[in-house]
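Example record

One chain of 530 residues, shown exactly as stored in the release files.
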Amino acid sequence: MKSFFAAGGAVPWSISGLSLFMSFFSAGTFVVWGSIAYEWGWVAITIQMAMCISGFLIGAFLAARWKKTNALTVAAYLTQRFGKRTQRYYTFLFLALSLGYTGAFLYPVAKILNVVTEVNIYHSILLLGGLIMVYTAVGGLWAVVVTDVLQFVILTAAVLIVLPLSLEKVGGWNRFIQEAPETFFHIFNDTYTPWFILAFIGYNTIFIGGNWAYVQRYTSVKDTLSAKKVGFLFGGLYLISPVIWMLPPMIYRVIDPGLTGLETEGAYLMMCMNVLPAGMLGMMLGGMIFATASSVNTSLNLAAAVLTNDVYRPLFPKAGNRQLMQVARGATLLFGLGTIGVAFMVPMAGGIVEVVLSIGAITGGALYAPAIWGLFSKVLDGSRILLITGLSLLINVYFKFISPWLFSFSLDRSSEMLVGVFLPLAMLGIVELYARGSGKKIGSGPSSISSPHHTENDPISPSGSGEKQNAYGLSVLGWSFLSMGILFVLIGIVASTARFYLFFMGILILILGVTLVRLSGKRKARLNTL
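Predicted structure tokens for this chain:
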């Protein structure tokens, strides 16, 4: 159970950080941000670079505190900190809202397949949703982490090939700048104003620092220092990667300026189809699909953890390990079916950009800010954070749906994000000041949170099997990289263009694979001697 939901509890911080980066970065990079980059230009890079600030803030202030809770899930932390009633409320609210998030993340995976192969979008959702459900149910969190790291390496190598080929296609950097729209290189553009960026930093600090799925990346490493490094690595990657990743769809705007509406969601893929040599497009497509799918499988694994550990297990405390694993895999499949249903409704909601940003604005601060605040506050109790979450959600829903219908008044995107992020923070601050002023401790405080009391028969208590699973996970990564490196070299042999890039990337990936295989062998040898 600990391996299935926490990957053994000692994942190397570098792997956990890359997994966090891919879980969040890939949710809509090629579709959501690619669409914004094609339509508005440099502002897509500005938006993504803002997330590096969130990563550094999380590394400095939040990640270590989550690790100190010693909780397997955020639901377990809420039970320890605020009581069972509060935990139940947030559990069912989180599961309901996660269907919306996960369905929104499944849609761009299917969109990629739809654009490249012209397979019907709904058939694509069924095919890929079913595949993701199965391998997540089989492999647990290690299946999620391994695919995240694999796709990071594959896609980074691929995009470093796409970028120079895209510039060659457009006729060089100077022609790209000259023929791009007049406002294409403005730091802010259209509805993406400085206020939107400020709100986006606040939202992502709360979302990445408090989302139940992402908190797993801080709690599944071995200590608090490793948890901090996970946040810092995430921030560092977002400081560098946006420029590299967003230039291809921007360049495609000059090559083909005629995309409109939902067609812009396919700009990234169309650029790849124009420049990649035979074979490389297939690898890029596979990488994009499963990198984008990482947000789906992360949420599936987390939902299964919550349903198994925090809903089923308290009802059946005598359930054994085998029974709990059956429930975990069944919960993964059940939640996956719901996700497929939500993904079917994304086109009717105005496309993926509108869905992702609207869901984030309405729910992000309301759902995750109270739990984060509880990591620092000694005076908040469960009833007050429930009230704050409920009021914040009601106000956000009012401005999003009811006010435009009744009074023809709606918030613009910047205001929507600002209200969604800072309203719950303001409420939390007011309650905190009131409680401190009254001189009463109305909550148990973070200092009361201690390590869960594991027993010999506890199915999720740490054991040596976790270290064996981690060594095995590194071995899987190493051999996978060796296979991918060989593929790059073989594609370079048969390709008519970009041979140097393919050979160079293939050799680097082969070196990485050999390193991980040797590291895994040393860990297994050390475990065998203990």
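Notes: DSSP finds 20 helices and no strands in the chain.
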